[in-house]
From TrEMBL:
It is found in: Mitochondrion inner membrane; Mitochondrion membrane. Zn(2+) binds at residues 91, 93, 112, 115. The lineage of its organism: Eukaryota, Metazoa, Chordata, Craniata, Vertebrata. SUPFAM superfamilies: Rubredoxin-like. GO terms for cellular component: mitochondrial inner membrane; respiratory chain complex IV. It comes from Camelus ferus (Wild bactrian camel). This is Cytochrome c oxidase subunit 5B, mitochondrial. GO terms for biological process: mitochondrial electron transport, cytochrome c to oxygen. Pfam families: COX5B. The keyword Signal does not apply.
Length: 128
């Protein structure tokens, strides 16, 4: 029963998609808006679209790219940009098979409890 209804609905919709062109030739029209396949940028909505538009205006608006690595010493610490004063940081230590998580506080440099790599918090502003 359901297949008959679907078949009939398709048969009724098919002529609407085939409209005669300017020279009398029947052509099939796409149901996509504008007759083309939409891009990822055109389909994005909400926060995803807002992030994409902000990324077009400037570099890394939501701080999602990996920060530039430094030597990790007290004189040259890894700079970690953050919009908060106390982010949680995961260190991928060479001698450990798991991530080592620790809080990074605003102010002086701090070291990873496992490998001793030095990190420093740098304030980051969102591009709005």
């Amino acid at each position: 029963m359901a297949s008959r209804l679907l078949h009939r609905a398709g048969a009724l919709a098919a002529p609407a998609l085939r409209a005669p062109g300017p020279n009398g030739v029947t052509s099939v029209h796409s149901m996509a808006s504008g007759g083309h396949v939409t891009t990822y940028r055109e389909q994005a909505t909400g926060l995803e679209r807002e992030g994409m538009m902000a990324a077009l205006k400037g570099p890394d608006p939501y701080n999602i790219l990996i920060p530039k690595a430094a030597s990790g010493t007290k004189e040259d610490p890894n700079l970690v940009p953050s919009i908060t004063n106390k982010p949680i940081l995961g260190c991928i230590c060479e001698d450990n098979s798991a991530l080592i998580w620790f809080w990074l506080h605003k102010g002086a440099t701090q070291r990873c409890p496992s490998c001793g790599t030095q990190c420093k918090l740098v304030p980051h502003q969102l591009a709005r």
